[in-house]
From TrEMBL:
CC cofactor: heme
Protein name, entry field: Cytochrome P450
Organism of provenance: Setaria viridis
Ranges that cross the membrane: 78-102
Any one GO cellular component localisation term in the record: membrane
UniProt-annotated location(s): Membrane
GO biological process: brassinosteroid homeostasis; brassinosteroid metabolic process
Topology class, membrane: Single-pass membrane protein
Keyword field: Heme, Iron, Membrane, Metal-binding, Monooxygenase, Oxidoreductase, Transmembrane, Transmembrane helix
Annotated InterPro entries: Cyt_P450 (IPR001128), Cyt_P450_CS (IPR017972), Cyt_P450_E_grp-I (IPR002401), Cyt_P450_sf (IPR036396), Cytochrome_P450_Monooxygen (IPR050665)
Signal peptide bounds: none
GO molecular function, one term: iron ion binding
Family that this chain belongs to: Belongs to the cytochrome P450 family.
Binding site for heme: C536
Length: 588
């Protein structure tokens, strides 16, 4: 019997253990025979056995995700919870790092590459702390009487940055850069938004408490709300509200007259007086027969605004609204009560309209009528009750704030410039005498209109607007990446001597003698109510109300600043007098 030598056996063992040899064997037919050598150290004969083809494992390998799920199913609950928490924490950490560091760094590099200068980004807060510090300092320093250069006091942070870095510069609100756009033509392009590059900066959840209405919406939602609201603010509808304006103004005048001394004079803080007047006007024009409920809403909105101002003045903390503070809890309570009152008013009005009892002389009636006409039975085309509630809340805040601010600064400025007060009074008496002003004659008042425009130029109720870039775009030769806030600084443009001339900081209504379009070479340089398709829907309402109130006052009184008056304009939401506006009235 042949016995292979050890050298051959070693090679055979190596070959038998190799993968190549095994593949060769597996390729043979099922019943093939292979001669296997015996061990060289034994006398056993060679053994012959059939080699069966190895069956392939048809069981597919489970995907990793499936195996992970099986492992999770078999894992104890605490392990699953721990893994989920770890994943959530990792995601939150990555998102926070991107939001608070990488995105601001990327935006900062993009802006500086365009030649823009600005402040250095500080993690999370940006310039909020510095802005708060400068505001506190500015509010300790009142302005001289007769000074209308109010920017350093009203917007000290932006004034400082512009002075150091030029007009096109940027600051940081938290992790978001805010770029100043001081050119009227660029402002006009942003406000027109023809290509949809810009969007409204979204208010915080707390900020929306004052009214999450048409002013805050975008796209199709904004278009639907605006379309339904427009009929309520048509000039013919506003004309019918003039008697309500007159009644509210006469009530205030009578109250002032009753407070007069025997010499026919008195001292009154006109700031709260005008807030009450405009709140009264909105209550009556918005809700008509539901006037008393409207006054309760006005009181609640006033408290809500004060509490919001307190929260806005606090340090910037993301998610502050969700903290269970006493102030936050009270604001939620107020909001719920306002919603309850408005829901009851709207429900009664809708029921009356279905029964054929129409009352379309107030804003709510006009809004509901327009809503029914637009929807035509299709709920998707109209506004829900919650939408109507939010629009009513916005009526209150915007209608009250804008006109009360305008009237307050108008009387303050006319007290500083008695010569213009006399000219305005002479015009009013020539048109109306002591009679109630009518709609047509109010629109023909030239000097009164010039004065109101000049006050809106120097003391705009809203001192700046903001828009956010949705995508990368070019404006004024500068390429802005997505995620940048563009500040449209109304007050900077209104006070710019390059636009308005060397007397830009002076009160000179004569510049509007030939209308707004001829007041300056830049027609887009005057925009106290915004511009473009999103221009304030209630601007005609506010101006007509202001004219009626001013004319009624000029017919009955002359006025001057009280010795206790401190010229201290400051802004939180709108431009307020920090220490009120006490004036001395003298009956004519």
């Amino acid at each position: 019997m042949h016995q292979p030598n050890s050298k051959w056996s070693r090679r055979t063992r190596i070959d038998l253990q190799s993968n190549r040899f095994k593949r060769t064997l597996s390729s043979l037919p099922t019943h093939s025979f292979v001669l296997l050598p015996c061990s060289p150290f034994t006398n056993h004969p060679h053994q012959v056995r059939p080699l069966k083809k190895k069956k392939k494992n048809k069981r597919a390998k489970k995907p990793m995700a499936t195996r992970a799920l099986l492992l999770l199913r078999e894992a104890p609950p605490w392990a699953v919870a721990g893994a989920a928490a770890a994943v959530a924490l990792l995601w939150l950490a990555a998102w926070t790092l991107e939001w608070a560091w990488w995105t601001p760094r990327r935006l900062d590099r993009a802006l500086r590459a365009q030649g823009l200068k600005g402040t250095r980004y500080r993690l999370f807060t940006g310039d909020v702390r510095e802005n708060a510090r400068l505001n506190r300092e500015a509010r300790t320093k009142p302005l001289p009487l007769g000074c209308h250069d109010i920017i350093p006091r009203v917007l000290p942070m932006l004034h400082k940055v512009v002075k150091e870095n030029g007009t096109v510069s940027f600051t940081w609100f938290g992790p978001t850069p805010r770029v100043m756009i001081p050119d009227p033509e660029s402002v006009k392009e942003v406000l027109s938004n023809k290509f949809g590059h810009f969007g409204k900066q979204q208010f915080s959840r707390a900020g929306k408490l004052l009214g999450d209405g048409v002013a805050n919406h975008e796209g199709e939602k904004w278009a639907k709300h605006r379309r339904i609201l427009n009929p309520a603010f048509h000039h013919e509808k506003i004309k019918k509200m003039l008697p309500v304006f007159a009644t509210c103004c006469v009530d205030v005048i009578n109250r002032w007259e009753n407070s007069m001394s025997s010499e026919g004079s008195s001292e009154i803080d006109i700031w709260p007086e005008f807030q009450n007047l405009t709140g009264d006007v909105i209550s009556r024009t918005a809700f008509g027969s539901s006037y008393q409920e409207g006054r309760r809403i006005f009181q609640l909105q006033g408290e809500l605004a004060e509490r919001l101002i307190q929260s806005f003045q606090a340090i910037f903390i993301p998610g502050y609204w969700f903290l269970p503070t006493k102030n936050n809890r009270r604001m939620r309570e107020i909001n719920r009560e306002i919603h309850k009152i408005l829901r009851e008013i709207i429900g009664k009005r809708e029921k009356a309209m279905k029964n054929g009892e129409t009352n379309n002389d107030d804003l709510l009636g006009l809004l509901l009528e327009s809503n029914m006409r637009q929807s035509n039975g299709n709920a998707k085309l109209g506004l829900t009750t919650e939408h109507v509630i939010e629009e009513c809340k916005l009526f209150y805040f915007a209608g009250m704030e804008t006109t009360s601010v305008l009237l307050t600064w108008t009387l303050v400025v006319l007290s500083m410039h008695p010569e213009w007060q006399e000219q305005a009074r002479e015009e009013v008496l020539n048109h109306f005498g002591r009679a109630r002003p009518d709609f047509e004659s109010l629109n023909r008042l030239k000097i009164v209109t010039m004065i109101l425009y000049e006050v809106l130029r120097l003391y705009p109720p809203v001192v700046l607007l903001s828009r956010r870039t949705y995508k990368g775009m070019e404006l004024g030769g500068i390429k802005y990446p997505a995620g940048v806030n563009l500040l449209l600084p109304i007050i900077f443009i209104h006070h710019d001597p390059n636009i308005w001339g060397k007397d830009a900081g002076m009160f000179n209504p004569e510049r509007f003698a030939d209308g707004i379009s001829n007041a300056t070479k830049h027609q887009a340089a005057f925009f106290p109510f915004g511009g473009g398709p999103r221009i304030c829907i209630g601007q005609n309402f506010a101006l007509l109300e202001a004219k009626m109130a001013l004319c009624t006052i000029l017919q009955r009184f002359s006025f001057e600043l009280s010795p206790s008056y401190t010229h201290a304009p400051y802004t939180v939401i709108t431009l307020h007098p920090q220490h009120g506006a006490p004036i001395r009235l003298k009956k004519l």
